[in-house]
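Form 7-S
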Amino acid sequence: MTVGDLPGSAARLRTLEPQPPPRRRLSSRLGLLHVIAIVSGLLAFLLILSWMRSQQDLIEVAVATNTIRSGNVIGAAMFDFVEIPTAGFFDGALVSPEEAGRLVGSVATRQIGADEPILDSDVRPVDTPEGLRAMSVALDITRAVGGELAVGDRVDVIGFDDVGPLYIATDVAVLDVPGERTSAFSAATGFAVTLAVDEEQALAIAAALHAGDVHVIRSTGAPEVTIERLDPPSTTETDGGG
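Output:
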């Protein structure tokens, strides 16, 4: 009798034959490949970005920490310095840490948004004639020549007392006009003008502003004011008899 003739030998031989591994689903293999591809792509992107940054020259420039409105006097807390890639020809228009000293105390010539680089042309020094002071006068735009004032204009300031209107400052130089002239809904908006005044004019204007009735009129090229106030209308009574 041979081995093949033994009872149950065929069943034992089939049991010893190697079985093929179970097939994995195609969708699971494709999903794993996608994940590997995405991760590899992200790693490659980060490596390339890191390499590109290492190849760029960085410079420190001043940026606004919060919105700086036109006409605001800039303080040290209103800007900070960040590193940005050099832009070559544009670098000269930016403010470096070495130039930070001239930012403090200067006036913004336009509105500068938060985190926006401050350009050299965005600021200017506050220049007042010797012995004078800079005073900001906030008033209704309709009482300031409709806002049509410019740096270098000369203006007169009119106020009121118990008697009537009077000139409280004349031939005053305009240093800055930071106020907004128009809005989307109205032509009459908040307005301010910065004037060069002496100590007496400053007190007189402050008193008039406190009273709430001030007019600023442009006098550029006009003759010098020769009166302080207009005489009130005559109230002389006439005799009704004949």
